[in-house]
Specification:
0% helix, mainly beta, 5-stranded antiparallel sheet, Neuraminidase, 26 strands
């Protein structure tokens, strides 16, 4: 069902964005991540199902296809016949491929024929977000403090096995959302599973970490705009945040209980941010205007 949400917003005229519209889609069964598929201009939404247990292997996970206005187009778009998802989390779409993290595995799916292939991430317990960079797939594991690299990213197209390695380890801040930068580094949102506040971090090609901001909250999704501004979700404040290195952060929207891994959809003037609420089962479609 689609309805106007009671999501509260805060906007300042001197800032680059304000919230122009907001719609809530309810009843999506614990959605964790959203990705925009520009090929058919729809959203792919990863869903846990009826049980909010992110490491339970119950075979009830799925990826739904949803319109940009919030209409459910296909309840179970992925996985295809014969494949099983448990608690799918981060999604990345590029070309006619979709990559998905699921507890201790990473999947790649063909969006045309829905065929999939998975690879085990040795030692992973909470594979969370995925990102593509330089032909490789990167997967965060929030529980073990690692980021895995899978090469090549499109292992669906090869006969042999992809190479799986640990790209970075000992990340005590709890790596969650991933976002590549034009400079070849990864921006990482920190989510401490023990409840402590974390921030924004940058990991270079050698796995070395630079702290960009600390003490922001319990962060989940992260996206970088061409201007260098970052958009994030924060479980502690229940907010969608805007951050820049000069003025810090402010809330664009609040009132969420479990703001998870969002996606950005470009518009003629501004952006649409689609935020899943893992706790309530809602999907918020938030229009940002300049």
């Amino acid at each position: 069902m689609v309805s106007i949400s009671d999501l509260s917003v805060s906007a300042a005229p001197e800032r680059p964005f304000s919230v122009a519209s907001k719609v809530r889609v309810s009843g999506l069964g614990h959605p964790e991540s959203v990705a925009y598929d520009p090929g058919d201009r729809t959203l792919l939404v990863s869903r846990f199902g009826s049980v909010l247990r992110p490491t339970l292997k119950d075979g009830k996970g799925k990826i739904s296809r949803v319109s940009l206005t919030g209409r459910l187009l296909e309840e179970r778009f992925l996985p295809g016949p014969g494949d099983i998802l448990h608690k799918p989390k981060g999604i990345w779409v590029e070309g006619r491929r979709a990559w998905v993290a699921d507890i201790d595995t990473a999947w790649v799916f063909d969006l045309t024929n829905r065929k999939g292939r998975k690879v085990l991430l040795p030692g992973a317990r909470f594979a969370n977000d995925v990102a593509l960079m330089d032909g490789s797939l990167f997967v965060s594991d929030t529980a073990t403090g690692k980021i895995y690299r899978v090469s090549p990213a499109d292992f669906l197209s090869i006969a042999g096995h992809p190479e799986v390695s640990v790209f970075a380890s000992g990340l005590s801040f709890g790596p969650n959302g991933l976002c590549p930068t034009p400079g070849g580094t990864l921006l990482v949102a920190g989510y401490d599973m023990g409840g402590r506040d974390r921030g924004i971090y940058e990991v270079d090609g050698r796995g070395s970490v630079r702290v960009l901001a600390e003490g922001l909250g319990r962060l989940d999704g992260i996206a970088r705009l061409s201007t260098g501004l970052l958009i994030l979700t924060d479980w502690k404040s229940g907010s969608l945040l805007l951050w820049d290195e000069h003025s810090g952060h402010r809330a664009l929207a609040s009132g969420l209980r479990g703001p998870a891994d969002f996606c950005l959809v470009p518009r003629e003037r501004g952006l649409t941010v689609v935020v899943p609420d893992l706790v309530t089962g809602d999907l918020y479609i938030i229009g940002l205007a300049r």
